[in-house]
Amino acid sequence: MNRRAVPDRRPVALTIAGSDSGGGAGIQADLKTMEAHGVFGTSAVTSVTAQHTRGVESTHVLPVEEVDAQVAAVREDFDVRAVKTGMLATTPIVERVTAHLGDWDVPTVVDPVMVATSGDRLLASEAEAAYAALLREATLVTPNADEAGVLTGIDVDDEAAMQQAGEALVETGVDAALVKGGHVDTDRVVDLLVTADRTRRFEGDRVDTVATHGSGCTLSSAIAAGLAQGPSLEEAVEAGVTFVRRAVRYPLDVGEGPGAVHHLVDLRDRAARHATSEAVEGVVDRLVAAPTARAIVPEVGLNVAGATPYAEAPAAVAAVEGRITRTVSGIRPNRGVRFGASSHVARFLLSAREFVPAYRFAANCRYDDRVERALEGLDWTVASFDRGREPTADEEASTMGWGAKRAFEDASETPPVAVVDDGDVGKEPMTRVLAADAETLGDRLLALAAAVADA
């Protein structure tokens, strides 16, 4: 029997850019990113590069007629909702793409690809002037500091210069400019979205990595994918910036060079949510079934938390809503497991992952003399911090983050399995147990419970 097809209708975007044989940037990065954002990606290849994670070996620019034919073919058949341009290579290609955009009412993101991350030049110097006309037809231009300098003649070396360059770009006719601050020497990364009416500032932590190959392509493609689905420009930019910062935080360890950004990071993280939630439920079930588990439940209740592989906030951490409390005969969870249910344990776990990225599961348990003796008998690596010295909310955004930092920075070379504190006024003493997987966390909690029961 033939089965009925059930078509999946998705918005379409077009990338006009060069090919990266290494797969981290260019057309390859664009299509991966668009697909990860739920958009069907089409392409027009402008050039073929032989490159890898260490640099560009050679470049072959396609005849402008072939680029034109690709764009025309896509326009003829697809309802394209957004366009992004990347490596355009030569003046004739820039001019032909500009001509297409001139009679095509479609949001366009221009990533002015001029130099690869490795330092190899990807745009002929005489083609730089042709970008002025292209920008007049564009919705957004996304230069890094060096590219903004080429396009405006401004030395972009601080935030004030970024603002100045953004304003200069908007004066050329482009609707908005996202001047990226990754190459600007600041403690935190600042990106500025400049329009004729306002400037929106995006600030984030700087990631200690050189695996940023493809970050520009990935960002512009994510924004184009957002525009293809209908959000406002500012919403699409905000989502794109958030996405690419996670893609840089969790780079792909491929090739012999620095590697590449993770184009599918959000997709992979979402795919892991169900398994993470089930894993937390499994630990809870083991505790409820254990006669000795009651011995490690603190007065405020015990919680089990599990982070998705690329979790960046408590919303990506599954935990018991309402915690697990003691009953006359044992323990029970107040409600089920859901993402975002935990605050303290989730934030402690996320902070611990800054030091031991493999840690994905954690639980809070009671801490008293019996627990202390039990921990000594288990021969675990145990760290501690003093809650009496924790900063105020005005001084530190997360006291749990501060506690994890104190504990892990003071720990020995072996990562701690448990972190304890003696509490403070109005704050119950606590033991926090950590593990890379749910099964190990369950084993450790049951071992601790058994040891406390015997203490």
Q: So what's the CATH class of the largest domain?
A: Alpha Beta
**Class per helix and strand makeup:** alpha/beta
Strand content bin: 15-25%
Strand segment count: 18
The coarse overall form would be elongated
How would you characterize this protein structure?
With 455 residues, the protein is α/β, with parallel strands linked by helices. It has two domains: 12-263, UDP-N-acetylmuramoyl-L-alanine:D-glutamate ligase, CATH 3.40.1190.20; 272-454, L-fuculose-1-phosphate Aldolase, CATH 3.40.225.10. It has 14 helices and 18 strands.
Helix-strand layout with pairing:
Elements: E1 12-20, H1 26-36, E2 40-52, E3 55-61, H2 64-77, E4 80-85, H3 91-102, E5 108-110, H4 131-136, E6 140-141, H5 145-152, H6 159-171, E7 176-179, E8 189-195, E9 199-204, H7 215-228, H8 233-249, H9 265-271, H10 273-289, E10 303-307, E11 317-320, E12 324-326, E13 331-333, E14 337-339, H11 344-353, E15 361-366, H12 369-378, E16 382-384, H13 399-410, E17 418-421, E18 430-435, H14 438-454
Parallel strand pairs: 1-2, 1-4, 4-5, 5-6, 6-7, 16-17
Antiparallel strand pairs: 2-3, 7-8, 8-9, 10-11, 10-15, 11-14, 12-13, 15-18, 17-18
Describe the structure using short key phrases.
UDP-N-acetylmuramoyl-L-alanine:D-glutamate ligase; 21% strand; 7-stranded mixed sheet; L-fuculose-1-phosphate Aldolase
Put the structure in a nutshell.
The protein is of the alpha/beta class and 455 residues long. Helices cover 37% and strands 21% of the residues. The longest helix has 17 residues, at 233-249.
